[in-house]
Write a structure and sequence with these properties.
Layout (H helix, E strand, L loop, with lengths): L3 E7 L3 H12 L3 E8 L6 H14 L7 E3 L13 H4 L21 H11 L5 E4 L4 H9 L9 E5 L15 H5 L1 H10 L5 E4 L1 H7 L1 E2 L1 H10 L2 H9 L1 H11 L4 E2 L1 H10 L4 E11 L9 E4 L9 E7 L1 H12 L6 H7 L1
Parallel strand pairs: 1-2, 1-4, 2-3, 4-5, 5-6, 6-11
Antiparallel strand pairs: 7-8, 9-10, 9-11
Helix pairs in contact: 1-2, 1-12, 1-13, 4-5, 5-7, 8-12, 9-10
This protein binds alpha-D-ribofuranose and calcium ion.
The site of calcium ion has 7 residues, from loops.
Length: 324
Amino acid sequence: MSALPLIIDTDTGSDDAVALLLAAAGGLGDIRAVTTVAGNVPLATGTRNALFSLQVAGRVDIPVHPGCERPMTRPLSTAQQVHGQDGMGDIGLPDPLRPAEERHAVEVLLSSPRGHPGELTLVTLGPLTNLAAALVRDRDLLTRYRHVYCMAGAADLSGNITATAEFNAWADPEAARVVLESATPDKVTWIGWDVSRRDAVMTPADQSRLERLGTPMATFAHRVNRTLADWARDVTGLAGYDLPDPVAMAVALRPELITEQERAHVDIALGDETRGQLIIDRRRSAPPPNLTLVRRVNEAGFKDLLFTTCAGIRQSRHDVREHQ
Ligand code: RIB
Ligand code: CA
């Protein structure tokens, strides 16, 4: 099987950066374009981070298209307290070699499937502002992709940015609702923060293993996540830092890593108290499901993909079949 043709939408902070390495360097992904959106950091910073992350993966050939610089209706709230002022652990990364593209991200999200109907997989790693803006112009856009994977929400209602909300859903809940109103479970899969908190936590032993690999990608992935590691220790109290975007990307690249999922009707809270909280209706009387929600993944398989990729070892999609 050939590498998976991908479009990646990202608000490139330090965990998005690792997800970009998995897609760009592991041999399983064929990134056709990256689009950026304001979220973890302001748009220009996230765009710079995406360009640099692709450069670390040896892929300066991949175009990066800036998109929306604020949520649909709300002011921008970043997560610089989580990832650092530059979103990458404030370690003083140099400017990327490649400039960003002129073409807007929303145009790219709209036009890419036209040339490749049903062939491209879209993976979103940030607030859903770009995708929602594209859906306002083409309400059937999701059907034109092979599949859409979103790192968004928390299916167990245990949040990171608030007690009950995950950041990507919280940052632009109106955009998330636009996506939910167009989604169908056979086309759209959400991988929530609950998954990364349970099956993608980088323990101190994992962090030491990553650092000891000593390759440029492993060293980069380790260093840019130092601020995230401190935040996880002080705020969420996990046994390390979790990698929500890399585990969402791993699911897109290797769906057989999913060990538990459900189909449900999902809406999102917009009010001040519960902003960004998922409203999951599992009653018999619920409306038809609109999402597939991943609940658990194979932790060992995810970490194998992470360490193998950061070690510079490429896999083929044929290998993926052998894992099934
Ligand atoms: O809540 C985790 C998500 O918010 C991740 O995508 C992280 O990069 C931030 O964007
Ligand atoms: Ca992100």
